[in-house]
Specification:
Layout: H1 3-14, H2 20-40, H3 49-61, H4 66-85, H5 112-119, H6 127-142, H7 146-150, E1 157-158, E2 163-167, E3 173-177, H8 180-190, H9 195-198, H10 206-210, H11 223-236, H12 247-258, H13 263-270, H14 275-296
Antiparallel strand pairs: 1-2, 2-3
Helix pairs in contact: 1-2, 2-4, 3-4, 6-8, 6-12, 12-14, 13-14
Amino acid sequence: MALEAEEFLTWLASERGRSANTLQSYRRDLRAYQRALDERGVDLTSVHTDHIAEHVRALQEEGRAPATVARALVSIRSLHAFLADEGLTHHDPAADVERPSVPQGLPKALAEDETTALLEAVVGEDAVARRDRAILEVLYGTGMRISELVGLSLADVDLVDRLVRVFGKGSKERIVPLGRHAHDALTAWLAPAGRPAMAPTRWARRGDAEAVYLNQRGGRLTRQGAWGVVRGHARRVGLEDRMSPHVLRHSCATHMLDHGADIRAVQELLGHASISTTQVYTRVSTDRLFAVYRAAHPRAVAP
């Protein structure tokens, strides 16, 4: 990576508070971009608009998904805007590059009975079962992202007032309520037969001692480890093919709107910066409404 690009990534981490996952995505996109520039013999500070447009076309011709191409362009635009703002280049060549359109897909939410089956798939009262139940119930009950869940520390949980403090994208803090099932599952996990039974005699890292969720080695549960838990129980009830990193978050939002929740409240719960991000769930609920109407109303379908 060019020094200028490394400075940009450092700025994203220190000044903008971007997460490790976000930085990894930026680095991956910018590495591919720099390889393309190197093949053309173009220095990063000498890029023209045509070079960026050519790279975008090349990604499209490789068959990359529209969302992947759009994300790569966001990384490139951010880099060149940074270079221009820092005076490392005389102009921003990415400012006039048109963003490729991305078809807006609908979130793949589970049906309510499918969600219930998944939540009831955890059996037993040993420490692992208590942890797994607390993972599923909190993910569905709060709609938090998997990275937010594994980032929780004990100080973030208030079982008395049934609240949890969540740090979302850009380290933005929000307070979300714990429903009865999520509260009960989390209480059981933090009880002596749960988390303390899985805690090691000596903590390997300070962050592990503060973590809400632990792996079986006594360390902080990773994002990959948490999704292994979710997928494992989804497999038991035949939902493995339906699971994705956001499926319980999608299901939480969709089911709340199905039951009459205000969209602004759902936006606050999920930590969406823009209401337009939350509005996609209203389309899901409308589709379900019409599906039920067509199936149940005698005059909904032509003979």
